[in-house]
Amino acid sequence: MNLRDTLNRPLRDLRISVTDRCNFRCTYCMPKEIFGSDYQFLRRDQILTFEEITRLARIFVAHGIRKIRLTGGEPLVRHDLPVLVSMLSAISPDLDLTLTTNGSILAKQARALKEAGLKRVSVSLDSLDDEIFKAMNDVDFPVWKVIEGMDAAAAAGLGPIKVNMVVKRGLNESSILPMARFFREKGYILRFIEYMDVGHTNGWRMDDVVSAKEIIKMIDAELPLEPADPNYRGEVAERWRYKDGSGEIGVIASVTQAFCRDCNRARLSAEGALYTCLFSVKGHDLRGLLRGGATDEDISQAIARLWGRRSDRYSELRSEKTVALPKVEMSHIGG
Questions:
Q1: 136, 246, 249, 321 — which has fewest CB within 10 A?
Q2: 93 close to 37: Cβ distance less than 8 angstroms
Q3: What is the reported pTM?
Q4: For the chain, what are the domain ranges?
């Protein structure tokens, strides 16, 4: 049964966070001041098992989900992740099964992930400049190891490789053109993401946002661009291609050009809470149903009710008041 929310938006895309832990401390996501050595992450018994994740995924697919993206935290720090990938890929051969990672340990796992049934990966990288990148990941991790992970994924057949760059004014906007040049030559799809007010611990300010329009203008001045049609309705990234035919980039402009009206994504946190918006204040407990004896039909009906009353459009309504809300952290439900 295909679901529609109150704004007639279908449910097509499910982001599954497999862990709330990460080996980076990116300043826009998990700042050390909050996520320090004494931070209490979820206990193992609080996190959904692979069997529980797969059971929920199967129910979501029956409701029209066509794409599942595994996220975190950093998903590859979850032990034996290829086992979960294999379980999920067995649900349907048509399921678009993808992964977003910081790339730090991707080189070691790329082939196993491909063999388990993963289709594609998106890798986060915010600069080619080691000094800037280390200032952003805040754990002294070098650029070359992330690129090594991308190349290993490409060699394993997990392409096309997509590279996600969060742009924050005063920190890494000088890296926009070097990143565009480099990944144009490599043939990887670079996507620029406006700095967002996800959660309430990253000190977000509108002044720190480098708009998608600014980014496109900057690149177009040196590497001429033209707009490209979306791959499908509801695609997050606005596509642009190089006029000389040498590839494409994307911009994700959820701050300056909200795309709420086509949003068809739900998010499942590591402990089994369903969030119907990236900027949600609270989630809906599905783990309780899983572990409380609910049947698949009970869970299916609960999901249908939750999606059926969904009216989220945070980015279209963003204001000083909503920005200050204690929203769930991005590290908890993925991007």
A1: 321
A2: no
A3: 0.92
A4: 13-333
